Amino acid sequence: MKAQKIIALILVVVMALGLTACGSGNGGAEKEETATTRSADGLWLKKFNGVTLKRILWYEPSESEKKLVKEFEERTGSTIVDEIVDYQNYNTKIAASIAANDPYDIGYIYGAFFPTQIIAGMYQPINQFIKSEYLLDKKSKKGIENGGFDIDKMDFYKWNNNYYGFSSYWDVDMMVVYYRTDLFKESGLKTPNDYAKDGNWNLDTFYNLAKQLTNTRTGIYGYSAGGENTRSYAEFVSGQGTQIVTYDSNGVPSQNLGDSKVLAGLNFIKKLTDPTNPVVDANASFRKGTAAMSIDGLYEAPKMMNDSNVPDVVKNNWDIAPIPLAKGNEKGAYPTDWLKAIGVVNGSKNAEAVAAFALHMTQGRGDNSWENYLTKEQINRITPYYENINYANYAYGTLGEEYVQMIARVAGGDDVSQLISEYKTSFKAQIDKIINE
Questions:
Q1: What is the DSSP string of 232-301?
Q2: pLDDT digit string, tens, across residues 154-165
Q3: Do 2-21+175-335+397-435 and 52-172+337-390 fold alike per CATH?
Q4: Residues 6 or more apart from 259 whose CB is under 8 A from it?
């Protein structure tokens, strides 16, 4: 029953992580150096007078995104026509447009759709647009502000040695630790950011803080991983510097449950959820004020601040810090949630204009409504998190749901080694099912 309760609490949020995370990670081609000049006939400056680009979305664009789109239209003389559809119908609509010889031009490749969309022939390869003058310069704040394609993130949308998605530096739903500043102050403890500044923020120091902040008498727990706003436990696996699915140099996936780092991550979850030494509780919630820390996306900030049920003591006393990584992996790739990429829909006659649109959109932070809820100092603090990401992809059949079940069983007390042995075959079967369709 305990495992079932944990499944019910974390299924929705883990599915968001599990079925949307993706990537080839290690499959990048040799990178070109970023150029500092913009050629007169290149994508940065080229006009597309009279061209109409049809874009398919499943969300209402934010004001910041609308502003970027309008700037592109004014600069190029083109027109962007949006169609917003239900998320569940997104791929069906794209496939239907291709079959009718009236394809959309601009589509979005997310983890939940990769590599299924590519195998189904929904998008064109974009290798021809990967040129040095279009690539992001990450070496400085100014370089990031100037925009450009982030080739390291585009590696996650590489399949059979072809690139299929344009990604910017900011095309990630970034994950952070939320923590209650008042509880840390009252306890006289160093904050997660204090530990990060000292170079000592890892899973060990995180656990020790969670232990010290847990007070079962008052109903305050050190960490919440099962509320209406909080994430799963999966970051404690990726924090080891691994994932349960890995990719070869061509982006071909395989299950990775035999990795000792996966074992270490699952054992950490077991330690964290040990009922004889409580640090978490299935009902503890950061929003409700019954947890000192939680892991969630930056998008949680506006949700939390606009939720009338969140008490003022929480709204007035929170900060963000990096996700803790395993000891020895403190400088490793940073665990993240969704990664977005713009794709050229198969059959579109306007591939160059779509590439120019994608390049233009790299100059802003896009649909990130959380900016209005963070201070300038906080935004500067999180900017480096985007540079080197550890992005997962569990979008293979029912693999994501099975991963939820496995984590829930770990949290419910099952033996980790036995679970790994049990799930290896089914994980492989789900991957094979998708890539061999």
A1: -STHHHHTTT--SEEE-TT--EEE-TT-HHHHHHHHHHHHHT-TTS-SB-TT--TTTT-EEEEEEETTHH
A2: 999 999 889 999
A3: yes
A4: 242, 246
Tell me which DSSP letter residue 374 carries: S
**φ, ψ of residue 180 in degrees (nearest 5):** -85, 110
The answer to whether 338 touches 114, Cβ cutoff 8 Å, is no
2-21+175-335+397-435: CATH homologous superfamily?
A: Periplasmic binding protein-like II (3.40.190.10)
The CATH label, of 2.60.40.10, 3.50.50.60, 3.30.420.40, 3.40.190.10, for the domain at 52-172+337-390 is 3.40.190.10
Name the residue ranges covered by the structural domains of the chain: 2-21+175-335+397-435, 52-172+337-390
Q: pLDDT class for 142, splitting at 50, 70, 90?
A: very high
DSSP 172: B
Bridge-based pairing of strands 341-344 and 106-109 is: antiparallel
Coil, helix or strand at residue 223: strand
Q: What is the pLDDT of residue 392?
A: 85
Sign of CA dihedral 296, 298, 301, 302: negative
Euclidean distance between CA atoms 166 and 163, whole angstroms: 8
Task: Detail the DSSP E strand segments found in 46-137.
Answer: 52-57, 79-84, 106-109
Among 241, 256, 243, smallest CA distance to 424 is for 256
Q: pLDDT for 261-275, tens place per residue?
A: 999 999 999 999 999
d(CA 25, CA 28) in angstroms, rounded, equals: 7
Tens of pLDDT, residues 58-94: 988 888 899 999 999 999 999 999 999 999 999 999 9
pTM above 0.85, yes or no: yes
pLDDT band at 148 (very low <50, low <70, confident <90, very high): very high
